[in-house]
Design a protein that fits this description.
Blueprint: E1 6-11, E2 21-23, H1 24-28, E3 43-51, H2 68-80, E4 83-87, H3 88-93, E5 118-121, H4 132-135, E6 144-147, H5 153-160, E7 164-167, H6 175-184, E8 189-192, H7 196-204, E9 210-216, E10 239-246, E11 252-258
Parallel strand pairs: 3-8, 3-9, 4-5, 4-8, 5-6, 6-7
Antiparallel strand pairs: 1-2, 1-10, 9-11, 10-11
Length: about 260
């Protein structure tokens, strides 16, 4: 797939100043008021796909829920990102490698490296450091490992041979500290690809700015994990609906905004 998809815009509608059809880069561009380089905080966007009944995976993986446009949205968000944040479980399950250079979105990376680095959140450092995620990462996008002081020193030393290791937190990774460390390294726009536990921690810490959610027109059933996994949020976290897009195959592409604490 080489062309850039056009999607139908449902919200905002024409009466709200919206246009009926627009390209994905127009729909999912980071907001003009996203934090400037002088700001102390990064802008964090989470990207997920879920079924109508809320399942985030099919047979343990998210890939079975998406369509071609969802995959294009995923690739677009990678092109927009300065760094891609992902939990170790998701990186293992989805068999992550380095982000690929996508010719459709190459112009969006003008003035930056050809691809964004992957930053993996892990307390245990139970990762395969000989996997493509580490050994195939280009020099301009070396993989980053975000871990805690409690991680095994030997594993930390091994990780440092193939990745940049950032220690953020004592017993577990403190995502607030981790985001600050990424921001200090110039990563202003962070795209989180999961998993649900990492996203839950971002929401709980008040560190999420946007949720880019594809809604698949399927019912999965079972006890599948939702996009937020962990203790109930009390009170629930309200969101503002910024965009609703659709394609004729029944998929919806939603963009929500958080009130940042």
């Amino acid at each position: 797939m080489t062309e850039i998809p056009t999607v139908r815009r449902l919200l905002p509608g024409a009466t709200d100043g919206g246009t009926p059809d627009l390209s994905l880069p127009e729909a999912f561009a980071f907001p003009a008021d996203a934090r400037s380089p002088a700001d102390a905080q990064s802008w964090v966007r989470a990207v997920f796909v879920a079924s109508v009944d809320g399942a985030a995976t099919v047979s343990g993986r998210a890939g079975g829920l998406g369509n071609a446009v969802d995959r294009a949205v995923f690739a677009l968000n990678r092109a927009l990102a300065d760094v891609i944040l992902v939990g170790a479980d998701t990186a293992r399950t989805e068999e992550y490698g380095p982000a690929e250079d996508d010719s459709r979105w190459r112009g969006l990376r003008e003035g930056r490296s050809p691809t964004a680095p992957i930053a993996v959140v892990t307390d245990s450092l139970a990762l395969d450091f000989s996997s493509p995620l580490f050994v195939d990462a280009p020099a301009w996008a070396r993989t980053i490992v975000l871990t805690s002081e409690s991680s095994p020193a030997e594993a930390r030393a091994k990780a440092a041979e193939v990745a940049e290791v950032i220690v953020a937190g004592a017993d577990t990774v403190d995502l607030t500290l981790a985001l600050a460390a990424l921001r200090e390294r110039g990563f202003e726009r962070i795209v989180c690809e999961g998993g649900p536990s990492v996203f839950a921690e971002l929401v709980r810490a008040g560190c999420a700015d946007e949720l880019c959610l594809t809604r698949s027109p399927e019912i999965v059933g079972g006890q599948g994990t939702r996009i937020v996994h962990g203790p109930a949020l009390d009170p629930p976290v309200p969101l503002d609906l910024a965009e609703v897009l659709a394609t004729d195959d029944g998929y919806l592409y939603l963009l929500y905004r958080f009130e940042r604490s």
